[in-house]
Amino acid sequence: MADPGVEQRAALLAAASVFPLPDGARFSYGTAGFRAEGSTMAPAVCRAGIVAALRSLKLGGASVGLVITASHNPVGDNGVKIVDADGGMMSQAWEPFSDALANAPSPEALVELVLQFAKDEGITLGGGPSAQVLLARDTRPTGEYLLDAAVKGINAIIGATALDMGILTTPQLHWMVRSKNKSLKASEEDYFTQVTESFRHLLELVPDDKYGDELNKKLIVDGANGIGGLKLEEIKTKLTGLHIHVKNSGKEGEGILNESCGADFVQKEKVLPLGFGPEDIDVRCASFDGDADRLVYFRITSPGNTTIDLVDGDKILSLFVLFIREQLDAINGKDNQENKVLPTRFGVVQTAYANGASTEFLKNLGLEVAFTSTGVKYLHKKALEYDIGIYFEANGHGTVLFSDEFISRLESLTTKLSSIATGSAQHQAALRLLATSQLINQAVGDALSGMLLVEAVLQHKRWSFQNWCDLYTDLPSKQLKVKVKDRTSIVTTDAERRVCQPSGLQELIDTEVANYCHGRCFVRPSGTEDVVRVYAEASTMEACDILAKSVAQHVERILG
Ligand code: 16G
Ligand code: MG
Predict the structure, then answer these.
(1) Smallest CA separation from ligand 1 atom 3, residue
(2) Residue 543 φ/ψ region, left for φ over 0, alpha for ψ in the -120 to 50 degree band, beta for the rest
(3) Is the pLDDT of residue 145 over 70?
(4) According to a count of CB atoms within 10 Å of the terminal CB, is the N or C end of the chain lower?
(5) What's the pLDDT tens digit per position in 477-536?
(6) What is the per-residue pLDDT across 477-490, written as a single tens digit (0 to 9) for each?
(7) Residues 296, 263 contacting (CB under 8 angstroms)
């Protein structure tokens, strides 16, 4: 029999030789995977396939995921990220190796890196447990070609299997990986069933004893001409209690992926997306990004005006917080601080980009608000520390996490209440929390299931879009980007809210901020682009503009 070491070397050499790294190419795993112009991505994707297979081996053969998408970025871009066995982002401890592998200058160097890493990590190559990688891609034209590169990378690890799950939203793949490793139903059909059934269940639990107007059931969704729109078209007829019209649905000929549409465009530009117009005035609208892991809402107010009323991730989070708090209060009794039936550590996680008005709103509710650096991997990790942890970025990426231990306590309580107090307010509230944990994606932020939770909560509260907007008024904000020689020379602390290097810059920012009422400003190196970002907030738009501009000038002058 051939020496497994020799066979393994040969397989790696062969795969790496198919997709050599072009001279001068440099990849960085960044905040959420490798990303570049789609046609240049094959070497990085193939190598990510190798990393994913190794990761599965490391985890004793548990399934891991690999998703090919460049999210909200232009259609010509593409990207790849690895989903860990728990359905979350790949462990950060593996990022340096992923970077090194993606940039290995030759097939031989790549083989040496893999062998050394396997040795360091105690991974048995060439005959240990079998590895499994679930693959998905979005609708980008380079997706199929890159899928092939990923499969070749996965197959270069002997004993690894690549399972193509098809064209999916990013959160669907995260969900599948998590479900599979928990031995739960994990097909796309199962995802749709879980989402539609738990949504139906939440609507059945809407109290009928409240006065107020019936909520408008009409919802228009901007699908960013991506995969989220297509999936929503597939399931919308199964969503009773809601009339969904999908625009920019991703169907042939409707428009270009993410071009002047989608959650990123709507949130950043604060204007209506392509395909929307006067006919949509005053209707509740939602917007997904290109791989459907971001969600924002908006409303068009007047025909001649392209600006919109925006409901961003912070306000979605606030709505969820109110709903969950209401259920917890119903279960525990509002005033009974001791001997709670269901003691719950309930926490909220935001980033520096969260609008100051939202943070104040949450703190005024008496909630614990934690801050992390930008990027889902940081927020998600923090939210896992709570029984119920909610995180959202202002850009619309977020979810509500329920700990396993909390869910089992909630299940026992529900069983108990169903025999002694069936139909009571307490029982209904417990059932609502359980249905919420089923509906909202436990692996990652998910525009589709997040949107259904928003809809269920609005119906529950009998709230109009205006009621939701009125929760608090966003402080005007402004974002700028500055091109500098080396963005990594900016080092931040305090969840990116303060700069510690270069010295003196934070003092300059503080001096500028002190000139404005409700002024707040921070700078941070982007994790996805070669720029430094500047964010400013103040009580007027004019003040924001000036504050952002003057801080950007300091950055330019110091880092040039
Ligand atoms: C990525 C992150 C997003 C973050 C953004 C920041 C994930 C899945 N996505 O898109 O959460 O807000 O990067 O980009 O983590 P920046 O570092 O370029 O500002
Ligand atoms: Mg996305």
Answers:
(1) 375
(2) alpha
(3) yes
(4) N
(5) 999 999 999 999 999 999 999 999 999 999 999 999 999 999 999 999 999 888 999 999
(6) 999 999 999 999 99
(7) yes
Beta-carbon neighbour count of residue 34 at 10 Å? 23
Residues 139, 227 contacting (CB under 8 angstroms): yes
pLDDT band of 468, cuts 50, 70, 90? very high
Please say if 71 is a catalytic residue.
yes
The closest residue, in CA terms, to atom 12 on ligand 1 is 375
Q: How far is the CA of 377 from the centre of ligand 1 (A)?
A: 10
Q: Which atom of ligand 1 is nearest to the CA of 72?
A: 10
Task: Give the residue whose CA is nearest to atom 16 of ligand 1.
Answer: 526
Q: Is the pLDDT of residue 128 over 70?
A: no
- In the set 71, 249, 287, 373, the catalytic residue is 71
Q: Which atom of ligand 1 approaches the CA of 528 most closely?
A: 18
Under DSSP, the state recorded for 271 is B
